[in-house]
Amino acid sequence: MAEVKLIGFWASPFSDRVIWALKLKGVNYEYVEEDPYNKTQLLLQHNPVHKKVPVLIHGGKSIPESSIILEYIEETWPQNPLLPQDAYHRAMARFWIKFGEEKMATICSVFKTAGAEQEKAIEEATEQLKIIEEKGLGDKKFFGGGGIGLIDIAFGWLAYLYEVVEEVSAVKVLDAGTFPRLHAWIQNFKEVPVIKESLPNHQKLLEHLKRRREIHLALSNCLD
């Protein structure tokens, strides 16, 4: 069997989604921790275009970009499928994965803003979360129905990272009263054994994001 290696970063939600997919598929792999602020030759060699994590190396061949990696994993290891068998539902799953990636920056913009700008960011994030809850999740346990799938993995950062973003930013956007179905999904998602055992340490993530927010706000003030 060809060797599988993942270059990732512990605080990257994009690395996390690849780890979850590999574990749900039962694929054995070697994890290599990367410092995105002091990039190694290994990362530059295997992702010379974007120079970012995650990168999956399978049989010596490199696959960058988490969404591409997830598709590769699904096609290469068909056991425990994470996409629906039906072509239409597969297409809709890809639609919501793409939607989530396009709106992630908007939803997380509260992290990089303050004051009136942050208030606007909260409104925009709330609007996108409502679309995700009402049109994407609906009344289902998971986005794809009764079991965890690729859409859940793609939105997984909402289940653990966003609460830290809110804490660091001193805001509450993803409120249980406003988003009861998303909150139920978060609990269901975090109770999946593979997810539960792979979540980053909350305190460590909090300290990391506090430092990142301070840097973002300082740079923003310099540009004013």
Q: Describe the sheet with the most strands.
A: 4 strands, mixed
Give the N-terminus to C-terminus distance in angstroms.
Answer: 55 Å
Physical arrangement of strands within the biggest beta sheet: 2-1-3-4
What is the residue-averaged pLDDT? Answer: 95
> Structural class from helices and strands?
alpha+beta
Which residue ranges are poorly predicted, with pLDDT under 50 across at least 5 consecutive positions? none
Structure summary, number of beta strands: 4
The portion of residues forming beta strands comes to: 5-15%
Tell me the overall shape: globular
Helical run tally: 10
How much is the radius of gyration in Å?
18 Å
The percentage helix is 55-70%
**SSE string, helix = H, strand = E?**
EHEHEEHHHHHHHH
